[in-house]
């Protein structure tokens, strides 16, 4: 059965989060993503900033990902992930808290100058480090689409709207489709 546009977006997200490429999402993936992100943002190992990034990714694991483990083996398979995320669209309001956890992880990880938003260079550094399979142009294109008012920064509100569109919307024109680079329609 061919995948829908939404299913392709969700599967792509899974692949990018599977940091060690072992075919499952685990707490280890989240720890590795946090470490790569903290390095990219110039946060020294064991610093308070690096600790905040680590904690934000652990919350991402505990609040958002771990509950998707329907067979209880401590790891999220691709099927578990796609099934769980697809189910979110049935209850988008119930998803608001989880969305906040995802936004927190991105802002804690990428906001090197701590002004509460991601500039283009901050976004670039974060994405190069955490999603190495994305090309330079793809990251630049992603930022341009996500920065809805074109002021050169991604606010929490813009990130939240984009993640929501990425994970929930079938609208092929939604700017948030670019959250993780180009997805062919
Ligand atoms: Ca993995
Ligand atoms: Ca599992
Ligand atoms: Ca910033």
Automatic annotation (TrEMBL):
This protein's record includes keyword DNA repair: no
Domain EF-hand: from-to ranges: 5-40, 68-91, 134-169
The UniProt keyword set, sorted, is: Calcium, Repeat
| Pfam families noted in UniProt | EF-hand_5, EF-hand_6, EF-hand_7
Which molecular function terms from Gene Ontology are attached?
calcium ion binding
Tell me if Transport is a UniProt keyword of this record.
Answer: no
Q: What is this protein called?
A: EF-hand domain-containing protein
Organism, scientific name: Streptomyces cellostaticus
Taxonomic path: Bacteria, Bacillati, Actinomycetota, Actinomycetes, Kitasatosporales
């Amino acid at each position: 059965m061919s995948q829908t546009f939404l299913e392709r977006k969700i599967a792509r997200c899974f692949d990018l989060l599977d940091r060690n490429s072992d075919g499952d999402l685990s707490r280890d993936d989240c720890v590795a993503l946090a470490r790569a992100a903290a390095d990219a943002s110039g946060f020294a190992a064991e610093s308070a900033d690096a600790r905040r990034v680590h904690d934000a990714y652990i919350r991402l694991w505990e609040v958002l990902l771990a509950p998707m483990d329907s067979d209880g083996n401590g790891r999220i398979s691709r099927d578990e992930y796609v099934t769980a995320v697809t189910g979110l669209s049935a209850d988008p309001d119930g998803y608001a808290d989880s969305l906040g956890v995802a936004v927190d992880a991105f802002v804690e990880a990428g906001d090197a100058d701590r002004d509460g938003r991601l500039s283009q260079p901050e976004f670039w550094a974060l994405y190069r480090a955490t999603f190495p399979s994305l090309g330079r142009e793809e990251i630049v294109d992603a930022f341009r689409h996500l920065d809805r008012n074109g002021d050169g920064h991604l606010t929490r509100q813009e990130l939240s709207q984009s993640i929501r569109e990425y994970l929930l919307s079938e609208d092929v024109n939604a700017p948030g489709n670019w959250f993780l680079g180009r997805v062919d329609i």
